[in-house]
Amino acid sequence: MEKKRRMVGIWDVKHMFESSIIIFFIIGALATTAVYYVNSDEQDTSLPVTPSVNVYESLNGCDLFSGKWVYDNESYPLYKEAQCPYLPGEFSCGQYGRTDFKYQQWRWQPNGCNLPRFDAKVILRRLRGKRIIFVGDSVNRNQWLSMVCMLQSVIPLGLKKMQKVANVSLFTFKAFEYNVSIDFYWAPLLVESNADHPSKHKRIDRVINIQSIEKHAKNWVDADILVFNSYLWWGTPTLKILYGSFVDSEKYNIVSNHDGYKMVLEKWSNWLATHIDHKRTQSYFMSMTATHKRGIDWGMQGDGNCLNETEPVMKDNFWESGSDLKMMRILESTLDKLKARGVNVQLVNITQLTQFRKDGHPSIHRMFYSTLKAKQLSNPKRYADCTHWCLPGVPDTWNELILAYILQRLK
Ligand SMILES: *[C@@H]1O[C@H](CO)[C@@H](O)[C@H](O)[C@H]1NC(C)=O
Ligand SMILES: *[C@@H]1O[C@H](CO)[C@@H](O)[C@H](O)[C@H]1NC(C)=O
Ligand SMILES: *[C@@H]1O[C@H](CO)[C@@H](O)[C@H](O)[C@H]1NC(C)=O
Ligand SMILES: *[C@@H]1O[C@H](CO)[C@@H](O)[C@H](O)[C@H]1NC(C)=O
Ligand SMILES: *[C@@H]1O[C@H](CO)[C@@H](O)[C@H](O)[C@H]1NC(C)=O
Question: Could you list the residue ranges that cross the membrane (predicted)?
Answer without folding.
Answer: 21-38
